# Entry
Amino acid sequence: MQAQNCSNYPGSWRHPATMQDYLSPEYYQRIARTLEAGRFHMAFFDDRLAMPDILNHDHGEAVRHGIRVVKLDLVSILTAMGLATTRLGLGATYSTTYYEPFHVARVFATLDHMLGGRVAWNVVTSLNDSEAHNMGATTHLEHDLRYDRADEFLEVVLSHWDSWADDAIVQDRESGIFADPAKVKRLDHVGKYFRSRGPFTVPRTPQGRPVLIQAGQSGRGQQFAAHWGDLVFVISPDIAAAQLSYASFKDQVAKSGRDPASVRLCPAVYCVVGETEEEAAEKRALIEGLAKPIDGLALLSEVLNYDFGAKGMDEAFTDDELAGIKGLQALRDRVVRISGKTNPTLRDFVEISRRGTIHEFTCFSGTPTQVADQMQAWFEGGACDGFVLAATHMPGSYEDFVRLVVPELQRRGLFRREFDGVTLRDNLGLPRAEPFDWRR
# Structure
C-alpha cells in the first residue's frame, strides 16, 4: 500500500470509485477492516522520503498530475489501522540510510507491543538524491555502499531488540525488584558506520522481534535480502521468470546459512476481477485508460535517480549515462537484458519497465475462477510463497478481491478461513524469533 493520494498505480486516484479521504484515519481503517475480513496476513506500506521531482528537476508536473506526491508518515497510519483490527499484520518502510538504528529499533519495538505482535519493518536503503536533499545530505550514497551500511544497521537494530532477556522483567512488589539487571545488556556498538551504546529501552516484543521485509533485487540487494529478510517482495513479469527467480533466491538463502523454508518470497500483482469475463474486461479497460505518459517518466526518473526529461524517446543512453544511474540498478539491468541492447533508449526504458501502468506488475484478471486459476498455477508451480496485492483503485481492489476471489481460494483449500494465531509470525507460519547473537 501507499500512505498517499494514490496506490502503487499512480492513475488510481483518477478512478471514479477511488475514495478521496486519504488524509483521514477512516480511509485506512476501512481498508484494514476489509483486509482482516479477507484473512490477509498483512498490509504493508512502501514509502519514499521525497515526492517525484527529478524529472526536469522540478516537482511541478508530479504535483499537477498527482503522481504519488502526498506521502504521510507511516507510524501514525499503522497505529490507526492497528487500533481498528485485532489480527491483521501491519508493516512500514523505514530507511537505513537516513535514520539511526536506535530510533528505528525503538519505533518498531514499541509498535509491536502496542499492536500485540503484528508489526513488520520493510527495510530499504532509499533510492535518490531527492531523498538525500530532504534528509540533510547533498547526494545519495552509492548503491553497494548503502547495503554495506544497511548490514551494520541491521546488526545494531537486532542487537538492541534482543538485549533484554524474555524473563528479565520480574515486577515483584514485595521485594521491590522490577527487573534483573543481569538480563538487560548494554550494546556498546562501535562500528564502521554507527556507534550505539544502549541499554535499549524496550523489552522484547510479543513475537520476539518484528518481521523483516525486504525487496532487494540487484545482486547486492538479493544478497542482503537472503541474509536478513523474513518476507521478500519481488517483481516478476510472468510465471516462467518467477519460477527462475524463486529457485535462484531460495538457493541464495541456503548459501547464506538459513533455511529457505523460513523465508517467504512474494511477487507483486494486480488483480482485476468481475462477476463475468465481460465485466472484468470493462473494469480493466477503464483502469488501463487512467495512466498518462507523464506518470511513467516521473516515476522512472524517481526510481532510477536520473532525469528522463533530458533524453529524446529514441536517443540511446551512453555508457557513462548508464553508469550514472544510481537508483534501482536491477531495473536498469533488466532493461539492458530484455532490450538486447548495450545502450538502450528512453523508449526501451518506458516500454520494458511499464512504469506507471498496471503492466509494471503481473496482472491477473477475469472471473473469480480465472483469477484463482492463475494464482494457483503460480503458487503450486514453484513461483512464489504468496502474493503482494497492489491496488488499481482504493478501496475497491481489495473489496472486490475479498468478496469474489478469497471465497474461491478458500473453497479450493488454498487459503485459510481463520487466522492461524495472534502474532504476524504466527500467521506467516514463522516461529517466534530466537534472540539474535548480538555479541558475535
